Amino acid sequence: MPELMLIKRFARTDDASSLNAGRRRALRAGASTLILALTGPRLAFANAIVAVRVWPARDYTRVTLETDNPVKFQQQLMESPNRFVIDLDEVDLNPALRDLVAKIQPNDPQIAQVRVGQFKPGVVRMVFDLKAGVKPQSFTLPPVAGYKYRTVFDLYPAVEPDPLMELLAQTANKAQALAQNSQPPHTSPPSSGAGTPSTEESEAFFQRYAQRESGQRPSRPSPATPPSPATPDKTPPLAQRKDDDDDTYVSPPRGPKTARLLTIALDPGHGGEDPGAIGGAGTYEKVVVLQIAKRLRQKIENEPNMRVMMTRDADFFVPLGVRVQKARRVEADLFMSIHADAFTSPSANGASVFALSERGATSATARLLEKTQNASDLIGGVNIKTNDRTVAHALLDMSTTAQIRDSKVFGSALLAQIGTVAPRLHSPNVEQASFAVLKAPDIPSVLVETAFISNAKEERNLIDPAYQDRLAEALLKGIKAYFAKNPPIAKNRTA
Fold first, then answer.
1. Which residue of 255, 264, 279, 341 has the fewest CB atoms within a 10 Å radius of its CB?
2. 226-274 pLDDT, tens digit each
3. Please, is 408 exposed, middle or buried when counting C-beta atoms within 10 Å of its C-beta (0-12, 13-18, 19+)?
4. Given this model, what pLDDT does residue 165 score?
5. Residues 169-197 pLDDT 10s
6. Average confidence (pLDDT) over 147-156
7. Helices then strands (H, E): number in the chain?
8. 3-state DSSP helix/strand/coil percent for the chain, to nearest 5?
9. How far apart are CA 11 and CA 7, in angstroms?
């Protein structure tokens, strides 16, 4: 009996110990639940940096952070030295952010280097050391075309490059090179002839341009001495400018007429965040069309009576409206947008040329291409808060019947030459669609689909340097054929 009572007493003690242990476990579980409840929301909303990309260019440098959710951030621009500081909230330092340091290239026009670190728990600080003053713009893009949320930081130079002044500097350099190459040995430089302005004329033009930009009335150039009849000019005659306010070289009022240089605007499609169409072998449209445009640029620059402006000359994104504005800023005589799109079927093939349409697309292919090309701003990323939408819509709605007519004539001249190089034309006629990039009201404008990058054979052609060169030569011949029958007319400044 005593043994039994002892066993029962120990059993009660064990039961009490088990009960206390259970209570302790419950208290610990409750405390853990409370801790998770307090920290849970922060962890749930903490952002994971999926990717970081940098697009350096002379126009601006873009830094893009791709994340699962929108990022909250604070930014500050600092001087002496120039720095741009960004604090990312609810973000922890990860390998993608650390890789940003290696993505800054020595030739970046805006950024010298970047420092990234965990400033405090939940806050990552990025410090961009700048080469000069910048005007930053930042905005967030919603998910589109395979991208998650993107936070974009655009660093524009404090003094933005002027495409017109760059074109004029190019023209002056070309004039001097032509004059040096044509100068006989041991002789003094010849007088300025048609299409080849002298150094004095170049300096006078730049002075007039600066006066006009500052609001002053440009002074008329002084008369020049006519060239000697013993050295006749053999440059083919071109249309003359009649106004003193234009952006090309003009002849003195009482001297010989000086032909202006023809200005061609080349627009390689897509760029930066917008790769364009992607071929089966992984070829990016934005890459091959830039290569073709650069080859064509070199050929145009070799022509004595032509000069060229490119809307982009590197891998960065240019909004559709800005492409049009750049062409109008330099008063281009022709505008050519170069593409290599894809279609729903890999069997689609052949080159084609498009002009603007105010009545809808002329084919199913044109409708599809119109939709994909006009979506470029959404994919490439445009800060709509800084755009004057009223002005943009007014610009794009100013297209005229005359512009469309001239564009179709230009497109036909191109098709005739492209057909001698491309294995096949998708359409023998100029098609039409409402491409936003073609809506310059005063410039004949076309969009050239060099091939379907979704077609395996045509993708191989597009990455072949020899084929690219032949295609560029055909485009140049088309430009020259158009001007031979349609000489440019004098223009008055419209923008």
1. 255
2. 444 444 444 344 444 334 444 433 333 343 344 578 999 999 999 999 9
3. buried
4. 81
5. 777 777 777 677 765 544 434 433 334 34
6. 96
7. 13, 14
8. 40, 20, 40
9. 6
Query: How many residues in the chain?
Result: 495
Separation of first and last alpha carbons in the chain: 113
What is the number of alpha carbons within 13 Å of residue 435 lying toward its C-beta? 34
| E strand map for 121-261 | 123-130, 134-141, 149-157
pLDDT single digits (tens) 69-89: 999 999 999 999 999 999 999
Q: In DSSP terms, which residues pair with 278 in a beta bridge?
A: 284
Exposed/middle/buried for residue 321 (C-beta within 10 Å: 0-12, 13-18, 19+) = buried
One-letter identity of residue 240: Q
Confidence of residue 22 (pLDDT cuts 50, 70, 90): low
- CA distances, 268 to each of 32, 291, 294, 429 (Å): 59, 9, 9, 22
Find residue 205's DSSP bridge partners. none
Query: Which residues does 475 contact at the CB level (< 8 Å), separation at least 6?
Result: 296, 336, 414, 417, 418, 448
Q: Are strands 149-157 and 61-67 parallel, antiparallel or unpaired?
A: antiparallel
